[in-house]
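Supplementary Methods. Inverse-folding protocol.

Structures were first reduced to a discrete structure-token string of length 315. This string, shown here, constituted the complete conditioning input.
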């Protein structure tokens, strides 16, 4: 993964070599394809529609939220490019309607949900969560959505279902990053079923009171606040229940660096940098770094999910 703002960790250190080289290929090919024009550099100035009847959730942190501007301009969404500013500049290309999410696999009631059904499936809540990226920066985001467990209950997983796989849209015509082999497209992430059922795991449709901006994963994404940000897949079109552990995009790209669990853990360093501290976006480069908290500060709620597990091995 790449970061743009200054930090102790250099971009060349963060990005696995394979991905970094692919990124250079991407930039070269983008120039050759004239994508500079086609992908029209257009900042997302306009704000989204307000979501009605959003109640505040007791699961929120009391920390002050990061600004709307930082949350929507400093993004990781490799389908639109690898620079932090690429998603805000290019994600307007993505058409988020019509949109369906197929729920399939080991469930009694497989179903295709239209996005409008999903928006009404359960009362919308504002959940202010810390987001900790594997690149050692963090934000506080007032997400809107409801517990993913509400949807899972409707489809009734079978006893054999142990994992849940989330697949992002594959549409290279609107997602220019997918025209190059930066990652194994489509982006796939996964959780153990008990993690997916945890009340903190959010099916997210908005932020700051409004529909989700495209660059943050419109029209629907997952948010798992105790894990590194890459576990929270954006622009989801498929949710599949499986018996075996899903093969996830980052784990396939660099298995020694990005484990399946990816729980925020200050005591287990990334092979190429420390995870002990983090920089809070918006506080300025000279602000002291913050200590990273075990499970991103959600240990009380989630530590029991990993009782008896060696978290160095299952990183
Ligand atoms: N989902 C998809 N489909 N593609 C991505 O590149 N990046 C991940 C995650 N979900 C990513 C994704 C990473 S690394 C992070 S840190 C978060 O999205 C960032 O979410 P945000 O841009 O809304 O802050």
């Amino acid at each position: 993964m790449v970061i743009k703002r200054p930090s102790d960790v250099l971009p060349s250190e963060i990005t696995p070599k394979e991905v970094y080289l692919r990124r250079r290929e991407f930039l070269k090919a983008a120039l050759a394809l004239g994508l500079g024009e086609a992908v029209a550099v257009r900042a997302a100035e306009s704000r989204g529609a307000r979501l009605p009847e959003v109640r505040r959730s007791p699961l929120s942190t009391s920390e002050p939220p990061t600004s709307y501007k930082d949350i929507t301009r400093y993004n990781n969404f490799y389908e639109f490019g690898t620079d932090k500013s690429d998603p805000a500049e290019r994600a307007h290309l993505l058409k988020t309607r019509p949109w369906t999410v197929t729920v399939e696999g080991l469930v009694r009631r497989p179903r295709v949900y239209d996005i409008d059904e999903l928006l009404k499936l359960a009362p919308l809540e504002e959940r202010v969560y810390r987001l900790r990226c594997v690149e050692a920066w963090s934000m506080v985001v007032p997400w809107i959505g409801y517990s993913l467990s509400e949807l899972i209950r409707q489809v009734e997983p079978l006893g054999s279902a142990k994992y849940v796989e989330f697949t992002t849209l594959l549409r290279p015509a609107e997602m220019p990053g997918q025209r190059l082999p930066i990652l194994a497209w489509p982006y796939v992430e996964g959780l153990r079923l008990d993690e997916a059922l945890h009340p903190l795991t959010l099916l997210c449709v908005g932020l700051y009171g409004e529909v989700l901006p495209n660059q943050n994963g419109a029209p629907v994404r997952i948010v798992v606040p105790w894990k590194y940000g890459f576990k929270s897949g954006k622009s989801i079109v498929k949710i599949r229940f499986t018996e075996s552990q899903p093969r996830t995009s980052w784990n396939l790209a660099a298995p020694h660096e990005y484990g399946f669990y990816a729980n925020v853990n200050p005591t287990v360093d990334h092979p190429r940098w420390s995870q002990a501290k983090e920089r809070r976006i918006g506080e300025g480069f000279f602000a002291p770094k913050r200590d990273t908290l075990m499970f991103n500060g959600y240990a009380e709620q989630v530590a029991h999910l990993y009782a008896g597990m060696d978290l160095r091995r299952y990183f």
